[in-house]
Amino acid sequence: MRQLHASSLMSLDGVVQDPGGFGETDQGGWALPYFDEEAVRDSMAALAAADTFLCGRVTYELLSRAWSGNTGPYPDMINAMPKLVASKTLSEPLTWNATVIDGDPVEHLTALKQRPGKDIVMYGSPTLMHTLMQHDLVDTFKVTLMPLVLGSGSRLFLDGAVPKTLDLVETKPLRSGAVMLTYRRGSAPA
């Protein structure tokens, strides 16, 4: 069965909004000083193990605008990968090798995970992640924790998130001071 891996760049106070500086906030780009070569290699390995990139509408609009014209090893991988966008407002055709999920994202992802193929990777998209968590569809959470406090911004886990137990499966400190934390769905309910 295919796995769904949700990846986020997060400040110590849980903020995930605009880590790459795509214009969402005045303090955007806060993760860039900590996203070193080692983090890029890790991200490329995760992309190589996947054949589908999943995101919500906001993440799709930000990333497609920022990355679709870039070239190089990392942008080439992500630009070539088919993307699924969960949105109630977007309609076809989409750019950036993307398709709007037809119907309920939970039903679509449940079926997709049963089909043969590589893994599914998702960046950011806290609203979509919240929905998928409620239905126990996220297999792995990879959180790169940045050593800074932002004080405001959208958080990784939304208020009202269903309590979940997660098992820590890997801790990887980076030379930049960031720490990559990988969690799997927990073995016992919270």
UniProtKB/TrEMBL annotation:
Domain of life: Bacteria
GO molecular function: 5-amino-6-(5-phosphoribosylamino)uracil reductase activity
Bacterial bifunctional deaminase-reductase C-terminal domain residues: 5-178
Alphabetical list of InterPro entries matching this protein: DHFR-like_dom_sf (IPR024072), RibDG_C (IPR002734), Riboflavin_Biosynth_HTPR (IPR050765)
Listed GO biological process terms: riboflavin biosynthetic process
Gene3D superfamilies assigned: Dihydrofolate Reductase, subunit A
Protein name from the UniProt record: Dihydrofolate reductase
Species assigned in the record: Labedaea rhizosphaerae
